[in-house]
Each structure stands twice: as structure tokens, then as C-alpha cells.
Design goal:
This protein starts with 5 loop residues before the first strand and ends with a helix. The protein is elongated. The protein is built from ten helices and five strands. The protein folds into two domains: 6-134, Rossmann fold (3-Layer(aba) Sandwich); 141-208, Arc Repressor Mutant, subunit A. The protein has helices spanning 18-28, 37-42, 64-73, 90-94, 110-121, 129-139, 158-168, 173-180, 184-198, 203-213; strands at 6-11, 31-36, 52-57, 79-85, 102-105. The chain is of the alpha/beta class and 214 residues long.
């Protein structure tokens, strides 16, 4: 049981029903806090002596809001997971590139949800096999022997390399989104992670890095 732990349930639209929250509290013995996005933006999670988990509902077809929640809350909790995620959605496609510990699909059995939450609090990842495989693949990408590569940089994913190459052509975010059939917000999130991994602050610096390393 997770007595003393805290779970922050965030939903872009309507808040989860009491039975759902009550079920989680009963099965985990954790303190469950229900927030909407406005409440999340107004209040930072207080620091606790035990890890806390932000659990974001992705049932809305609009990918922007769950990813926006991720961006504003990922530094507030020790652990982060999405639930109610559709297979082959943009969030699923991006999961290997995000700093998350869990992803639960729509229709998951309640007992498997609580099993996964317990695993996350125990330091495990609760992610689909294909996402774990992608994470493993990118850690093995042989950029470290490339001239000019800095050893402390994270390895770019294949999607990030694709976007960086498009940036180098002068393409705007809207052009990249249209080319890759993704939303503009998703492209912005990818670019944010590219900048962070390369320790750059603008497109020109990123393009300069690409010209030397890709």
C-alpha cells in the first residue's frame, strides 16, 4: 500500500467522478487530489516526504491540453503518468521522448491501473513494450563518436532528428506539422526537447549543431 503518498489526478475537462477517486484511494491508500488545469496552473504541489504522482487524463481528443499539463507540472511531482490514452495517438507516439513513468490505455482494467500505479511508486516503468523498445533504441544510437558531439548531451530520437532536419531547411512549425501530420503544439514540444538536449536556445544554434553532427 501507498499510505502517505499523494496522487494528483488532472483532467482537462470534467473532473473524475467520486467513485473513481474513491476506488484509487481504497486500492492504494494514497491521498488523491482532483485538479482541473486551471487549479493546476494556480497551485504548485506541496513538497512531501514521500514521492507524489501526477496522473493526467488524456481522454480528450485534443492532444494539446494533456501535453500542456505535462509541460507545466512535470517539475512539480516526482512521478508522472498519462491514463485514458488511445493507441496510436500523438501522446503515445511521443511517450518515449517524455520524462514519464507510466502510460495507461483507454479501457484498462481497474486492477491493472492500480497495479501499475504501485509499480511506478516502487521505481518501475509502466509503459507499453514498443515505447520501452524505442527508449532502449535511442540510448544505443551511435552519436557519441560524431565530431563535436558533447558526451553529456542526451541522444536525439529519430523523430527529433527528422524535425531538426526540417528546421534546417527553414521550415516553420506549421510547415513541419503539416509535413509530419502532427499538431503544431506537438512540434513545439519536440523542439523544446531538442533545445534542452542540445543545450541551445534558438533555431540557429540547433541548425549549427545539426550541420556539425548529423
Amino acid at each position: 500500500m501507498l499510505s502517505g503518498a499523494h496522487i494528483y489526478i488532472v483532467q482537462p475537462g470534467n473532473l473524475p467522478t467520486d467513485p473513481f477517486v474513491g476506488f484509487l484511494e481504497q486500492q492504494t491508500q494514497a491521498h488523491c487530489h482532483v485538479l482541473n488545469i486551471e487549479q493546476l496552473m494556480e497551485n504548485e504541489h506541496p513538497k512531501h516526504s514521500v514521492p507524489s504522482l501526477t496522473l493526467v487524463d488524456g481522454q480528450n481528443n485534443d492532444t494539446y491540453q494533456p501535453l500542456h499539463i505535462y509541460n507545466i507540472s512535470r517539475n512539480q511531482s516526482d512521478l508522472f503518468a498519462f491514463f485514458n490514452i488511445s493507441a496510436d495517438s500523438e501522446i503515445e507516439q511521443m511517450a518515449a521522448e517524455l520524462d514519464i513513468q507510466g502510460l495507461f490505455y483507454t479501457g484498462i482494467q481497474p486492477e491493472n491501473l492500480t497495479k501499475g500505479i504501485h509499480a511506478i511508486f516502487n521505481g518501475e516503468l509502466w509503459l507499453p513494450r514498443k515505447i520501452l523498445s524505442e527508449q532502449l533504441r535511442k540510448t544505443k544510437t551511435p552519436y557519441t563518436n560524431t565530431p563535436g558531439y558533447k558526451q553529456n548531451h542526451d541522444v536525439l530520437t529519430s523523430r527529433e532528428v527528422e524535425i531538426l532536419n526540417l528546421i534546417a531547411t527553414g521550415a516553420k512549425n506549421s510547415d513541419i506539422a503539416r509535413n509530419l501530420c502532427l499538431s503544431v503544439h506537438t512540434i513545439k514540444t519536440h523542439i523544446y526537447h531538442i533545445y534542452k538536449k542540445l543545450d541551445v536556445s534558438n533555431r540557429m544554434q540547433a541548425v549549427n549543431w545539426a550541420s556539425q553532427n548529423l
